[in-house]
């Protein structure tokens, strides 16, 4: 019986290093696989030319909105299914699962309409280069029209995560990424007898990978995720449950979607400063590289969050703060390494994207400037997730909005028009420094108003002290 108790309550008893590693690794792997989709497309497309690379980069804001909506709905569904199962209400959990699939389908219809009617106007709002508009419209139209793959992949992954089967979601994402990597050069360059589709081929490879992930997700949920059943027999839209899903998921949607607003705005700013598209291409390369820098840290924080939440509920403050500190230390060490690499070999990193000489000349000093910002990022990212885990989601959302819209964009505009294009990149580390100050201030308030009143049920001699 004791062994069973330990197994059922591992977040409250397992050694913290082992626990955090086991919880975070699947999340880190999942985030890296997510980054692969757009990055691999960009690497192959860059071989076609700078305009084609810009076409894929400028499509990112809409692709990110698709992921934001799907993930936000998944977060709400995930939380409510887990809560319902914990309360022994399996029927409610099944209804939430069906509602999650339904809401994802409704969201897909909206993106389908945008894919048919809105893509060309979206690109014309960013650039006047016809090659970028034509290639980008083809690419984004395919991604939006077939975005049921992205919505389906994410919702079925969240259903598996809601019952603790996080490793299964790695299989679905891994399958999609592998298919995308294999098919990208085949459809882009016309290998193995396939037509050479250029930029459109990258989109075709992406959506085929996503659709394959959907079918695997449906199969794994049906065969291995027995705690819940997705069924539409007797289905009806329960608006109370829809509201609960949106209340939980909407902040997550906003936190992810503001990245689209920032990217779109930066594309407009850089395009006005340098109309040939070199600066926009450099920004696109930076954003792809940042995926592999930031997303593993996000995965670490996602592994930390349930540990913090569980031990908060169990009044084990020392374990809660131990998980927090482990995550801060690991994230800071990883980001320091990334900063050193980006500062030392910017030309090598840009080289993955078949740069022109002009891109290299502008991009190498830009990446070195941006690398400085990663030294300030770990603390703010970890604290943002920590605030969510203890029920302070609004503070976390404020930090996300402040980082990208409150600090980065105003600073970029200021540096651009006062000091010129070469100084714009300083807005990125300066914004991270400002967010660090917000995180420190927020953590001090949380220490005084929340953590100071949480008891510690563990009788240990080396009780954890709170770090600001």
Describe the SSE topology.
Layout: H1 2-8, H2 10-13, H3 16-46, H4 50-86, H5 90-117, H6 119-124, H7 130-145, H8 148-162, H9 166-189, H10 199-224, H11 239-273, H12 278-313, H13 317-344, H14 346-351, H15 357-373, H16 377-389, H17 393-419, H18 421-424, H19 427-449
Helix pairs in contact: 3-4, 3-9, 3-10, 3-12, 4-5, 4-7, 4-8, 4-11, 4-12, 5-7, 5-8, 7-10, 8-9, 8-10, 9-10, 11-17, 12-13, 12-15, 12-16, 13-15, 13-16, 15-19, 16-17, 16-19, 17-19
What can you see in these coordinates?
By secondary structure, the chain is mostly helical. The protein folds into two domains: 11-25 and 274-456, no CATH class; 47-263, no CATH class. 82% of the residues lie in helices and 0% in strands. It has 19 helices and no strands. The protein has helices at 2-8, 10-13, 16-46, 50-86, 90-117, 119-124, 130-145, 148-162, 166-189, 199-224, 239-273, 278-313, 317-344, 346-351, 357-373, 377-389, 393-419, 421-424, 427-449. The longest helix is centred in the first third of the chain and has 37 residues, at 50-86. The protein is globular and about 60 Å long. It starts with a helix and ends in a 19-residue tail after the last helix.
């Amino acid at each position: 019986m004791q062994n069973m108790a330990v197994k059922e309550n591992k977040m409250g008893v397992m050694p913290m290093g082992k626990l955090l590693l086991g919880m975070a690794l699947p999340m880190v792997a999942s985030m890296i696989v997510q980054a692969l989709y757009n990055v691999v497309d960009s690497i192959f497309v860059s071989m076609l030319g700078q305009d084609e690379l810009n076409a894929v980069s400028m499509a990112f804001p809409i692709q990110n909105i698709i992921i934001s909506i799907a993930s936000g709905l998944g977060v709400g569904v995930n939380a409510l299914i887990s809560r319902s199962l914990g309360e022994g209400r399996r029927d409610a959990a099944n209804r939430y699962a069906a509602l999650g699939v339904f809401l994802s389908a409704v969201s897909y219809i909206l993106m389908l309409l945008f894919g048919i009617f809105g893509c060309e106007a979206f690109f014309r709002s960013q650039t006047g280069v016809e090659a970028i508009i034509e290639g980008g419209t083809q690419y984004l139209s395919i991604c939006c029209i077939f975005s049921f793959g992205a919505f389906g992949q994410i919702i079925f992954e969240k259903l598996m995560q809601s019952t603790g089967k996080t490793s299964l979601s790695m299989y679905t994402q891994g399958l999609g990424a592998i298919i995308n990597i294999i098919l990208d050069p085949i459809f882009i360059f016309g290998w193995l007898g396939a037509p050479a589709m250029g930029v459109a081929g990258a989109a075709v490879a992406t959506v085929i990978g996503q659709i394959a992930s959907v079918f695997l997700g449906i199969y794994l949920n049906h065969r291995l995720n027995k705690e819940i059943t997705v069924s539409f027999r007797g289905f009806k839209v329960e608006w109370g449950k829809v509201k609960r899903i949106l209340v939980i998921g909407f902040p997550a949607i906003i936190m992810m979607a503001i990245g689209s607003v920032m990217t779109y705005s930066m594309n407009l700013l850089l395009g006005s400063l340098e109309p040939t598209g070199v600066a926009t291409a450099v920004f696109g390369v930076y954003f792809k590289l940042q995926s592999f820098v930031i997303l593993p840290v996000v995965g670490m924080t996602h592994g930390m969050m349930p540990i913090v939440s569980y031990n908060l509920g169990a009044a084990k403050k020392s374990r809660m703060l131990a998980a927090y500190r482990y995550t801060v230390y690991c994230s800071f060490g990883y980001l320091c390494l990334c900063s050193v690499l980006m500062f030392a070999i910017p030309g090598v990193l840009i080289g993955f994207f078949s740069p022109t000489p002009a891109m290299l000349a502008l991009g190498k000093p830009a990446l070195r400037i941006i690398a400085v910002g990663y030294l300030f990022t770990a603390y703010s990212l970890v604290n943002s997730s920590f605030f969510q885990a203890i029920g302070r989601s609004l503070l976390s959302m404020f930090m996300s909005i402040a980082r990208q819209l409150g600090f980065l964009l105003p600073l970029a505009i200021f540096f651009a028009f006062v000091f010129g294009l070469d100084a714009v990149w300083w807005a990125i580390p300066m914004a991270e420094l400002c967010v660090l100050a917000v995180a420190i201030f927020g953590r001090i308030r949380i220490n005084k108003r929340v953590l100071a009143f949480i008891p510690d049920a563990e009788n240990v001699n080396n009780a954890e002290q709170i770090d600001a």
